[in-house]
TrEMBL record:
GO cellular component: plasma membrane
Gene Ontology MF terms in the entry: fumarate transmembrane transporter activity; malate:proton symporter activity; succinate transmembrane transporter activity
Pfam family, one: SDF
Database matches in InterPro entries: Na-dicarboxylate_symporter, Na-dicarboxylate_symporter_CS, Na:dicarbo_symporter_sf
Gene3D superfamilies found in the cross-reference section: Sodium:dicarboxylate symporter (1.10.3860.10)
Transmembrane segments: 20-43, 63-84, 96-118, 146-169, 189-210, 230-249, 347-365
Compartments reported by the entry: Cell membrane
Membrane topology summary: Multi-pass membrane protein
UniProt xrefs under SUPFAM superfamilies: Proton glutamate symport protein
Organism per entry: Pedobacter steynii
Lineage: Bacteria, Pseudomonadati, Bacteroidota, Sphingobacteriia, Sphingobacteriales
Name this protein carries in UniProt: Aerobic C4-dicarboxylate transport protein
UniProt keywords, alphabetically: Cell membrane, Membrane, Symport, Transmembrane, Transmembrane helix, Transport
Domain of life: Bacteria
Length: 433
């Protein structure tokens, strides 16, 4: 079996003896889930105190962000220098961008289709809570600027620098020595990340407590139809679209989701897919994707493959059109997809950028009042979890697809190996030793 060929598979390193209660209490996933529940309870019954917990969630994410740049840099440099074939590196990059554009466009289309069918905006807007959207609606709408996008996107900057360094290192006579040194440094960085991830329950608690305390669960009631439509659409996209893609490559979306459940819970608690970026990269490597594919696809995907964000943006435009009774023609809906294909790429990594993208899109249409964004402010935070979860699953699937298509997928754990899946379930940390 493939598992026996590995000298020390990830799941064997963390397998814990003892009773089922010991394994549950020693599992970090359990404590993240408890933290999320505690955050919801605190936010519901003591909102003033819960809002103060924001600092805990923000601090955890800020610490995680410190690891993102070195992990992306080291993974890509080691992957490219280890691959040797620079033509293959270029092919992987182009194939990734093509895949991202196709799937992202499909997600925009399915968002519009579901909004048209379910009509979440057919409600009485006089009963909706109005937020202050002036910072997104004031001033002229700006066109998408690739230079601005690059200068404000650290992930893309690190990606470009790492590719350049990896290519240079490939031709250097000191390549082997440099790779050994970077390899040792990579182990140190991941070891540090492993211990930081034990703080994940605190981060999840702080993020969830602040969200519920600040915005309140009561804000969900007037826009429950929109919330339900968004979550339903993202569920359909994950299990039918991404699930179909995985099935084509003879893999199960259910088993993949089960494999990354720790990262998904962390994203759910913090409302940020960035909080799980370093650990999802390592999980995909341990799953069997090559270091070079993971290093190229995941960082690029976090800027160009935001499936959840694309669905939310397209649905929001149609929602606001329905809210104001604006009829959109088929050509105008195609225009929305075309505009969002470009502007949605700027919605990565910057808080509030989604509203800026929406404002630009509405301004370009000249039919839907931009002030309508005020109706979305109260409930947006509760939908950010759906966006982030869909984004991280989408990027994980993209990595597997590219790795499989490039024959860069060497699984330690086969989908049929129930014993391995069980052992992963019982692993203690989010990051394996």
């Amino acid at each position: 079996m493939l598992i026996e060929k590995s000298p020390q598979p990830a799941f064997q390193q963390n397998k814990q003896p003892g009773s089922i209660w010991f394994r549950i209490l020693a599992n970090l996933t359990f404590w993240v889930l408890i933290a999320i529940i505690a955050g919801v309870v605190l936010g519901s019954y003591a909102p003033a105190t819960a809002v103060k917990m924001e600092i805990i969630g923000k601090t955890f994410i800020d610490i995680i962000k410190l690891f993102i740049a070195p992990i992306i840099f080291l993974t890509i440099v080691l992957g490219i220098s280890g691959m040797g074939d620079l033509k293959k590196v270029g092919r992987i990059g182009l194939k990734s961008l093509l895949y991202f554009e196709i799937v992202s466009t499909f997600s925009l289309a399915i968002g519009i289709l579901m909004a048209v069918l379910l009509k979440p905006g057919n409600i009485d807007k006089s009963k909706l809570q109005i937020g202050d959207a002036s910072k997104y609606t004031s001033g002229p709408a700006k066109d998408f600027d690739w230079v601005h996008f690059f200068m404000n996107n650290m992930t893309i900057q690190v990606l470009v620098v790492a590719i350049i360094v990896g290519v240079i290192l490939n031709y250097s006579r000191h390549r082997e020595k440099a790779v050994r040194g970077l390899g040792r440094l990579s182990k140190i960085v991941f070891l540090g990340l492993k211990y930081v991830m034990y703080l994940a329950p605190l981060g999840a608690f702080g993020g969830m407590a602040y969200t519920v305390g600040k915005f309140g669960l009561h804000t969900l009631v007037p826009l429950a139809k929109l919330m339900g439509t968004v979550y339903l659409t993202m569920g359909i996209f994950i299990f039918l679209v991404l699930g179909g893609i995985m099935k084509y490559y003879q893999m199960s979306i259910w088993k993949f989701i089960k494999y990354i459940k720790e990262e998904l819970l962390l994203v759910l608690g913090t409302s940020s897919s960035e909080s799980a970026l370093p650990s999802i990269m390592q999980k995909l490597e341990k799953m069997g994707c090559s270091k070079s594919v993971v290093g190229l696809v995941i960082p690029t995907g976090y800027s160009f493959n935001l499936d959840g964000t694309s669905i939310y943006l397209s649905m929001s435009v149609i929602f606001l059109a329905q809210l104001y009774g604006v009829e959109l023609s088929a050509l105008e809906m195609l225009s929305i997809i075309g505009i969002l294909m470009i502007t949605s790429k700027g919605a990565a990594g910057v808080t509030g950028s989604g509203f800026i993208v929406l404002a630009s899109t509405l301004a370009a249409l000249h039919k839907i009042p931009i002030e309508g964004l005020a109706f979305l402010l109260g409930v947006d935070k509760f939908m950010s979890e759906a966006r982030a979860l869909t984004n991280i699953i989408g990027n994980g699937v993209a990595t597997i697809v590219i790795a499989k298509s490039e024959k860069e997928f060497n699984p330690v754990i086969e989908s049929g190996e129930e014993q391995a899946a069980e052992a992963i379930e019982n692993s203690v940390p989010l990051i394996a030793n």
